[in-house]
Amino acid sequence: MNFTLLRMVQNNLNRPQSDKKQLFLAPLLLIILIFACQVK
Question: Kind and range of the H or E element at 8?
């Protein structure tokens, strides 16, 4: 499950039309991912 989330983040980063909103959301998703791993 965590791997699929990481894949989604990578897909967001690789998207060509990445505007400022996506550039902000990608690290936010990574922080959420790390937080989810810490809770487990």
Answer: helix 2-14
